[in-house]
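User: For my dataset I need records formatted as: sequence, then structure tokens, nothing else. Please produce one.
Assistant:
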Amino acid sequence: MKKSILASSILALLVASAANAGQTFDTAAGSLYLGGDVEFDYTSENGEKYDGGIVDADSDFVGSGRLLIDIHGQKVLDNGAFASFAVAPTFGQNGDHGTDDVKFAFGMMNDWSLTVGHFEAQDLSPAGQDTYVAESGTTMYRADYARGRNDESNGAQATFNKAMGAAGFELTAYSQDNGNLVILRPVVTAPLGDKVSMAFGLELPVAGDDDGTTDAKDWMGAGGSLSLQATDDLTLAVRAAYLSDDREADSIDSYTAGLNAQFQNLFIAALYGESDSDENTADTTEMQVYASYKIPAVMEIDNFDIYLGAGWSQAEVDNETKDDVLGARVRFKYIF
């Protein structure tokens, strides 16, 4: 009888949520939120890709988009103990479907938590308002090999978080290649005064093959960012990452460094990447510059925004400069 009453209550709750999207509802089992967003892009791009694919010399006009449903719930006890879940299915404009977050977490509020499932951990190289980023296709390491959202059906991810006053510690265990490669990703975040904050982390393979294969553990990475709230309207950030990769006979060191600036609704960023190999046969450099402007509250609808983005990239591979990649995008985003 109790199960029947609970099922009826949940069904009624979901119906009510659908009619009043983007709201949180309290039940005996905890709180439940239902919302989501719509995001549709129209992109024009041309240039030469390092991966061998050549974008048409004439500017293309490509459309893409998706609908995301955001469902998450939480139960918190008086002593701070909690359990929560989140699922965010996505539906593409061409009928494809997938998910963003699918996760379960538990712990003590403002103390510690353990999260398992399919999600993203701390971003060590934040791209900011990246409406459109032109990419020439070289390796631009951003300390994100073990950040999360594993696309493999047999992959695994678990993240432990611990609050340390205003600072925080995060440790992610992440597996790839059907579990043959296991990476630990410790990250520390902390404020450095009232206007400055930092994040720094490592990516350390702890289990994998001992020879030169894609599953090998003969590499390590590091990355971090520093953010400054210069004024109420202006935020500046620097980011950098380093990768030492010995999985192949020709060892490669990769570096990236970038600068972000956000002034009200205008964002601009630059990111430089370089890979140096022992034999100089796989040396690459790439420069990316991109900008984005947000037009908020279109037609005075608070949750409907239009983003205008543009980007440029150029790569050099084995001392040969590739053609520029240049593009622009219009994004329509509605949060419900």
